[in-house]
Structure formats: C-alpha cells, structure tokens
Write a structure and sequence with these properties.
With 346 residues, the chain is of the alpha/beta class. 41% of the residues lie in helices and 20% in strands. Strand 11 (260-264) and strand 12 form a beta hairpin. The relative contact order is 0.18. It binds adenosine-5'-triphosphate and magnesium ion. It comes from Streptomyces racemochromogenes.
Length: 346
Amino acid sequence: MSTSINLAVIPGDGIGQEVVAQGLKVLTAVLPQDVKLETREYDLGAQRWHRTGETLPDAELEALKHHDAILLGAIGDPSVPSGVLERGLLLKLRFAFDHFINLRPSKLFPNTATPLAGRPDIDFVVVREGTEGPYTGNGGSLRTGTPAEVATEVSVNTAYGVERVVRDAFERAASRPRKKLTLVHKNNVLVYAGHMWKNIFDKVGQEYPQVTTDYLHVDAATIFFVTQPERFDVIVTDNLFGDILTDLAAAVTGGIGLAASGNINPTGAFPSMFEPVHGSAPDIAGTGKADPTATILSVALLLRHLGYEEQAVRIEEAVSADLAERDGTFRSTDAIGDALAARVAG
Ligand code: ATP
Ligand code: MG
C-alpha cells in the first residue's frame, strides 16, 4: 500500500462528469490524512472528438500509463457514430493496458427494488475475460451490402488468456467466505473454445482444493440468475457471455445506478480502470437525477485494488447503511455524494 495515490480521472460525457465529481468527493473523504491524493483530469470523449477528431492520442495513452489507477465516468453520445469511441477509446485502452479482468460485483442492497420475488440474498461477483473472445476485432465482411454478404466475427481464445483469467477467479473465490466458483460457457455447442475453458478450469482447480467448483451453460445460467441467484459466489466467463450476464445481474440487483466495475490488470504492469457500468445517459444529464452510487462503489473497487481494503469496506458499508435508511424521497446526485462522503469520514 502506497502513501500516495496518483489518479487519472476521465469524467467523459453526459452524467459521467456529474458522477465522477461525487466519486472524488467520497475518495477524498475516506482517505487517511497522510495519504496524498494527486489527480490529473483527461479531456476525452464525445466533445473532444467533435472538437479535434481525436479519440485517444498516443501522447495521452502514454501519460495515462504513469498513474496508479484510472477513474472513468462514462464515454459516449448519440452524436458520435456508433463504434468510434468504443473502439477508438475504450477498447484501445483495454488492449493497451491489457485489462484482462473485467470485474463486476453484484449485491442486492437494502431497500433496493428487485424484480425478483422474496428478496433472495444476492452477493456474487462476475469475473469476465476482457481481451479475447469475439472482442478482438478478428473477422470481416465479404460482398458487403449485397444480398450475398457474408460476415464473420471470430472468437479468439488462447490458453494463456483463459488460464490467467481462470486463475484470477480462483484466487478471488479462495479469498471469499463461501469459496465457490462457477464456470459459465456453452461447451455443448462452442466445443473448441468451451472444452479448452473447461479443461483449463479443471486443471487450475486442482491447485485450489478449498474452492468448490461448478459448471453451467450460459443459457442455464440466465435462468438461475433469476430463479436462484443466491447459488452464485464467483463466476468466471468469456467476454461476450460476461457482458450479457452482468447486465442481467445489474437488473436483478436494483439497476444500473448501483452497478460498479473494474477493468483490471492484476499484474500491476499498467494502471487498472474503474467505472460505473452505466453509460452517459444524455436523457438525464444536467438534471441532477444521476445516481452516483455506482461510481462511488467503483471507487471502493479502486481502493481495494490499490491495497486500501479498510477504506473500500468503509465505502461499501456506507452505501449499505445509506440505502437502509433512505425514506424513498428524491435525492440529487450531489446530495447522495454528500451523504456518503459524510458517512465515510465519520
Ligand atoms: P451506453 O451505450 O453508454 O451503455 P446506454 O444508452 O446503454 O449507454 P445508459 O447511459 O447506460 O444507456 O443509461 C440508460 C438509461 O438508464 C439512461 O437513459 C438513464 O435514464 C438511466 N441511467 C443510467 N445511469 C443512471 C444513473 N447513474 N442514475 C440514474 N439513472 C441512470
Ligand atoms: Mg448500455
């Protein structure tokens, strides 16, 4: 654990700006006096692209490398063609910094609306592979735009890539009280990749006899997310399955305003990046309606990653207590940030 944190901040677009301000407020409040927090803000996102045509210039990519971690608000705006910022900024960062773990905890907090009957006890974390699967841009289109068009999108799975994410998931499972890890894939149909995932999972599992393991096809997993979410502790899965499952997980645990995530390189070779799962929500930008809790919980993940476990827990407990006591009246973005900052400082 360092005695200073050199943080890169990318507020981004729409409500990204608003929620990041609250995240920083809580971060400042929770850190011990003797930890020096330095921040540098990066102007990246839709406005920058409109102004200069740039998404993530190499000079900024280089500068970002020298931070301990990155806090991101949200990137994206309907005025920018789909894919420009995703590929030119978000995926570029993920590949450049080799963020092979996409971490998404799912917890049902008190007083949070869930569409599930009987308020099951939901507290699991999805470890999604971040750099492979169908996300590598490997594919193409033949006879584009004609009735005879053929498009391919190749799912890339390397033993190296699968083993490192599976190992990380076993480590996380071993450190949690329930010590249970579920592999989710579709190895009855995607046999080449699916069998490799399962074989590697079984092999690495031999080193973790204390961890109980399970395997589910992704279609069955979607059913259990809704009917028996309490059966999950840690889930490890492929990039695309993880994308879909974690949105489902956010929906059953009270929605997008509470869902936090980390794009992590556990080796520490590059800074990891923490962000709320939601997007820039242009429909509510500037109205004070954005819930900053997801960003504040992302700050907790950031602190845990940097070794500030006690401060991370303090933020999570503050969110829990704050939600337990809330009486349902509307609170602005700022008011939620203030309430949580006061709780973690106290
Ligand atoms: P993206 O493509 O960037 O994921 P999106 O179009 O999927 O964006 P989001 O920006 O994630 O959409 O938001 C979807 C809707 O959920 C928004 O229009 C907004 O009404 C609501 N929403 C998102 N984030 C929040 C938040 N933090 N607090 C309250 N409501 C939110
Ligand atoms: Mg979205």
